[in-house]
Recover the amino acids of this structure.
């Protein structure tokens, strides 16, 4: 794979991950269980959206350099004009919010991964990726701590909250493996020194998850068949619905600005 | 007068103009107090200002860029460009002492010094945050996230007042 192509795909993968999770979390706006947590989840959404913008802006710059040298590609065209099969986000982030426990668990599994990813990206040979990750790492550190505390609170909480967390694990665990199964562009990205070998992050991720689950008195599933495909554009049915809402305005009124 | 002192004078003048440009979300702080102005590059009638965002998703950045531009154009500068750079990442340690003082007077607890805290491991104790109203350290975190990306919610267990804490970042 050409360096430029894998750099673009790698950047878009992380842009899509953060955009889709931002969109999912934003669905909670005005619906959080209590005001403070409504504010927390939408703050996390905003951080992720900011990270997505940084990745999209960089991808747009790379695409424009590669092709016409113009400025036809922008962060907006990448977010609003691409179709489902062109999105490279992992399956975990597009899963429905479910109840608060499910949203919390999704955030915890993802933030724990993202924390390790952004830490590893500090050694990338691509200056802009280092900058975006360094900025994002500070935010992700908060997300990880916040979601860890909630996993513990709910897992080791009441009978009801524990049931819900067990259900959340059942719903989401099968999508966690994909985070560490590299797509072709991730393998190429790692070889060329700007990306991260995601499979190498799995052990540390497991340790982190184990520690929090133990505190939360939640069982870590032993063996599971892991779903994958999102990184290559093969998504669950949910992404189509997310994009329909997210892209509605631009599809209905192309180029509209306000 | 040589070119270097000319530039130094010019930068000082621009700085004092930027001290009048406030953060739209925390209006007691100027962009200088906040520490987001990283470089001022005058060259004749043209100026380039380099700023860095506080948080990746800070929605105030576009307005801040615009306000910086407007303030300098109003002072007669002809061509002003404001450039956003991500690296090095902003930290609350870049906030001025004056800025921290102003925050406290406004009722927002200023960020602690980074070396003292900023351990974000999940099982660590919370940092000690001083109540901006009664100066007590007997305070409790209500939520890690507040009304803007840069703040957390606290309450004072002595004077019972809730307050915002500008997070150490």
């Amino acid at each position: 794979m050409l360096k430029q192509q894998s750099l673009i795909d790698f950047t878009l993968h992380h842009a899509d991950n953060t955009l889709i999770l931002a969109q999912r979390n934003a669905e909670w706006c005005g619906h959080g269980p209590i005001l403070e947590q409504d504010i927390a989840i939408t703050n996390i959404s905003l951080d992720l959206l900011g990270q997505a913008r940084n990745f999209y802006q960089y991808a747009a710059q790379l695409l424009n350099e590669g092709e016409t040298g113009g400025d036809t590609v922008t962060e907006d065209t990448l977010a609003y004009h691409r179709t489902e099969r062109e999105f490279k986000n992992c399956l975990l982030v597009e899963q429905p919010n479910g109840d608060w426990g499910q949203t919390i668990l999704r955030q915890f599994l993802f933030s724990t991964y993202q924390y390790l990813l952004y830490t590893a990206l500090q050694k990338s040979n691509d200056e802009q990726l280092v900058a975006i990750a360094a900025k994002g790492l500070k935010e992700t550190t908060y997300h990880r701590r916040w979601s860890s505390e909630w996993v513990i609170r709910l897992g080791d909480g009441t009978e009801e909250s524990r049931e819900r967390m067990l259900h959340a694990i059942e719903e989401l665990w099968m999508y966690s493996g994909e985070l560490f199964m590299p797509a072709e562009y991730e393998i190429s990205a790692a070889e060329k020194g700007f990306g991260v070998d995601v499979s190498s992050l799995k052990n540390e991720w497991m340790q982190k998850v184990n520690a929090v689950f133990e505190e939360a008195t939640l069982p870590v599933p032993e063996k599971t068949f892991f779903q994958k495909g999102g990184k290559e554009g093969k998504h669950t049915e949910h992404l189509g619905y997310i994009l329909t809402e997210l892209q509605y305005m631009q599809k209905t009124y192309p180029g509209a600005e306000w | 007068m040589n070119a270097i002192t000319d530039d130094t004078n010019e930068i000082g003048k621009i700085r004092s103009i930027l001290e009048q440009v406030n953060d739209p979300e925390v209006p007691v702080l100027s962009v200088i107090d906040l520490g987001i102005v990283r470089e001022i590059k005058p060259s004749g009638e043209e100026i380039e200002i380099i700023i860095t965002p506080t948080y990746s998703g800070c929605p105030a950045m576009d307005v801040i860029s615009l306000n910086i531009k407007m303030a300098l154009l109003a002072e007669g500068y002809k061509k002003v460009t404001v450039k956003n750079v991500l690296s090095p990442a902003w930290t609350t340690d870049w906030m001025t002492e004056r800025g921290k003082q102003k925050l406290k007077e406004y009722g927002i607890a200023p960020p602690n010094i980074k070396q003292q805290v900023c351990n974000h491991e999940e099982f660590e104790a919370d940092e000690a945050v001083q109540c901006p109203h009664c100066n007590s350290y007997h305070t409790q975190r209500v939520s890690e996230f507040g009304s803007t990306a840069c703040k957390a919610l606290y309450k004072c267990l002595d004077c019972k007042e809730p307050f915002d804490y500008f997070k150490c970042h």
